[in-house]
Fold this sequence. Notes:
Blueprint (H helix, E strand, L loop, with lengths): L2 E5 L5 H10 L8 E8 L4 E8 L2 H4 L11 E7 L18 E5 L2 E11 L2 H10 L9 H10 L5 H9 L4 E9 L2 E6 L8 E5 L2 E5 L2 H5 L4 E5 L4 E6 L2 E7 L11 H6 L5 E2 L2 E2 H15 L7 E4 L5 H11 L7 E3 L12 H11 E3 L1 H4 L3 E6 L8 H10 L4 E6 L21 H4 L2 H7 L4 E4 L2 H8 L10 H4 L9
Parallel strand pairs: 16-19, 19-20, 20-21
Antiparallel strand pairs: 1-4, 1-10, 2-3, 2-4, 5-6, 6-7, 7-8, 8-12, 9-10, 9-11, 12-13, 14-15, 17-18
Iron/sulfur cluster (SF4) binds next to helix 16.
Amino acid sequence: MCGVFGIENNKNAAQIVFAGLLNLQHRGQEAAGEAVYDPKIKTIRCHVGRGGVLNAFNGAPAALGGSCAIGHVRYATSGKIVPQNPHQNAQPFVFNTRRGQTALAHNGNIYNDKELAAALRRGGAIFAHTSDSEHIMHLIERQKGPLLQALPPALKKLNGAYALILLENGRLIGVRDPYGIRPLVLGRLGKSYILSSESIAIEMCGGKVVRDVAPGEIIVIENGRIKKSFIFERKKRFAPCVFEQVYFASPASRVCGKSVAAARMEMGRALARQMKDIKADFVMPVPDSGIFAARGFAREAGIPFEFGLVRNHYMGRSFITPDQKIRENIVRVKLLPVKEKIKGKKIILIDDSLVRGTTAGKIVKLLKDCGAKEVHFALSSPPIISPCFYGIDTPTKKELIAASVPLPQIRRQISADSLTFLSPQNLIAAAGSGKCKNFCTACFTGKYPTGIKI
Ligand code: SF4
């Protein structure tokens, strides 16, 4: 996934970006970094590091002076960690181009990146990184004219999802892909503008959300003013990722103008209506991502809500850890059972999604080992049957349990007494609002908004 954040016209730019990144930390913990433009020496300075924001910055904002800055938290979907060069692929990237220095932070994934990179190599390009984000900059550099003129023809070559923040000569440029798959929000803090992957990072810096950056929009911000904004490519469909509402975004954020917490509560309510024949003593979330759906379920079904599992908050989010071995180890120490609550009970257990099945079987076993009488496993999303090519790390079908194993067999495999998925219609009804109803749901349907065929 990744998170991006930028602010201009603010003497505390470096500190505010640091705070913004802390509030986007849930979007990626593999690396973090910040690039700041110093107008006195007309130079972009950059700091990147491995791990979460506090690790990457050694616990405090980098001492980078300047009033315009961008930052990035990384979750790798393109370009893995290279042990010999641990900072490779950590963003922002800073490029010395014929137009001057430019820094880039990217959230998303470019599906046709292999072909684009091969063509660039044939043309003599040399890459310092292995991620698609660098190739975007090469495509821009090959276009004529100033940066704003070069952006549209370069971006039109991309098939995929991207929210970009560029820092050039003391100004911010925000870009959102023409389908609006990845989020990008515009905010205001005093006389400064902010761009952020999520609304909560703007609000926690004391700012206010102005609006979502529109699909296909390029927005240029300088000296506390929006200098220019235009749509470089218009598509008939606005297809934001529905998985932001299900799992990725913070419940404290608003996605497409709708509270993520409220959307998750509605998903839980709909699940309760789907499962009205199943009787249980209480409903319980897999913390943290199942909490709001479980609250909604409990209210709709009129049964108690209990915490029977306590999350070890010193561990990362297992799904956004790129390596499967690390993921499995994290699951073993991530969830701690409260045995007294579980023993002899019929439990409805709510999680957000079933992706690889890494967690589900282990949790059901854990509950049964603690004496649970029945465990009814329910997911606040439909079965994931197709890989995401837009920034979530499920590159092949074989990693997705629901793509190859029939649902009754999955239920037996995870030893649950029943297994229920939220229906696609109920998911859209819960996540949608206003103009935002035609989500990307490709991982549940195999129908990709940008026309990818597999
Ligand atoms: S395929 Fe799924 S996870 Fe990927 S962008 Fe679409 S809805 Fe989101």
